[in-house]
Amino acid sequence: MRKLLEKLDKVDRRIIYLLMALSVFLPLALRLNYPIPVGSGPSRDLFDTIDSLPAGSVVLMSYDYDPSTMPELQPMAVALTQHLFSRGHRILAMAFWPQGASLSQEALTAVGDSLGAVQYRDWVNLGYTVGAGVSIVRMGSSIRAVYPQDRDGTPCDSIPMLRHVQNLRDIDLVICLSAGDPGIHAWVMMAHDRFGVPVGGGCTAVSAPEFYTYLGTGQMVGLLGGLKGAADYETMVREGRENTPAGLATPGMAAQSIAHLVIMGFIVIGNITYLILHRRGRGEAR
Amino acid sequence: MNWEVIGIWLGAVLTLMLYSFLYRDNPFYKFAEHLFVGMSAAYWVIYSIYNVLKPNFWDELTGAGDGTPDYLMIIPGVFGLFMLARLIPRIAGLSRLALAMIVGTGAGLSLVSTLQTNCLSQIEGTIVPLTGSGTMGFINNLIIVVGVVCGLVYFFFSKPHDGITGKAAGAGITVLMVAFGASFGYTVMARVSLLIGQAQFLLFDWLPTMGINL
């Protein structure tokens, strides 16, 4: 027993890496499917908020992330876009992260084409801008002051969808997909607290705990946290529409669950080994 | 030539080179790391010129956008040049003027908003009634109130942490540990999610280019 414990205590870290890799790659390769029950919570709140908006509402989506956090945030972008278009809402896309503008274009064109949404009638991509908080404050008085033209260079004055959209008060909901700063903090601080526009969002799992405080105070209407949040949203979008494809996050949840079990196993074994060897070590020292 | 396939192969090979570090440090990892740093630096320089400097400064100054030159843009232009003065030790002090403007504007803009958003609203959010919202609502509100009060007691250092104060501080540190644990759990989830994303790329984008469809 002691030899086994000593072996476990000195296990090569590469064996841990190998087991972690297997716990992720195998469920994906075998296409394991785990059920994703979605109860009440921040993901459901965001879904219900979008559902409760009247058709034709203008939703501003800020894509504040880059390819390094795509696995978590791009599935949210796709699922949210599907939900918004299927409810007949219009999307005003923008980004405080340079590469967010390209990633938003990818989601909007792919989902828009499949659901028959038309650029400039159902969606506009304003592209990237600098400034975060400063730009949001300026958009509070005039969106055209920050974005005189969209990402493709079309003047905002000639875009039909923007005819009645002058400033943030003409926006029904802001959704920020945030990988850090600038992101949700700036939108809550400026758009919600200063201009009273409802703000929802999605973020990487790392930053989710710091944004939960905004849910308790009503400063955010809902929040998707990490891959689980994305999978929750995909599941809700698919409810009643079984023909809709599974999305990007849902297939990853089996791998996520198994990887977490492996990590929990490591933590338990590591602690048991440490406690037993440490206690014996102390006993022998006496 | 199929550029998409070339892109997928490039991404896959560089991913494997970077993951090879998990075995041990090696020249393939070093090569991929240096390539990433160099490419990132070059990308940001070009992106900043064409997406920040040109539309926000040059086009405004020359009137390339709406045909009306805005000569007031010379002022931020000069301050921008002041930032570069750091490269010349003799006039490096000029960069402080630009930094002072950035710090002053940032502080002025965010001071009140930060106080409102992250302090006053959060305090308001912890002043909750212990009645109403059913049993679970009562328990939730009780945890919030007790957790916040005990957490604050832990950071109250003007009185020794013994007696009731010590017990409250002990409860406070327990609440803090639970919060740190939850935060760490989310961090683990995020890192595993990134690995899943890359695994999906290798399995479902890269392998099919070799005729292997899972």
Can you tell me about this structure?
The complex is a heterodimer of chains A (286) and B (214). With 286 residues, chain A is α/β, with parallel strands linked by helices. Chain A has 2 domains: 2-32 and 253-285; 49-250, Rossmann fold, CATH 3.40.50.10160. Chain A contains 11 helices and 6 strands. Chain A has helices at 2-9, 13-29, 42-52, 70-86, 98-115, 133-141, 143-146, 184-195, 208-216, 226-238, 252-285; strands at residues 58-64, 90-95, 123-128, 173-178, 199-203, 223-225. In chain A, strands 3-2-1-4-5-6 form a 6-stranded parallel beta sheet, with helices on both faces. In chain A, helix 1 (2-9) crosses helix 11, helix 4 (70-86) packs parallel to helix 10 and helix 6 runs parallel beside helix 8. The two termini of chain A are 21 Å apart. Chain B has 214 residues and is mainly alpha-helical. Chain B has a domain at 130-214. Chain B is 76% helix and 0% strand. Chain B is built from 6 helices and no strands. Chain B has helices at residues 3-19, 27-62, 74-84, 94-126, 134-154, 163-206. The longest helix of chain B has 44 residues, at 163-206. Chain B is extended and about 70 Å long. The two termini of chain B are 25 Å apart. The interface between A and B is large, with 50 and 41 residues.
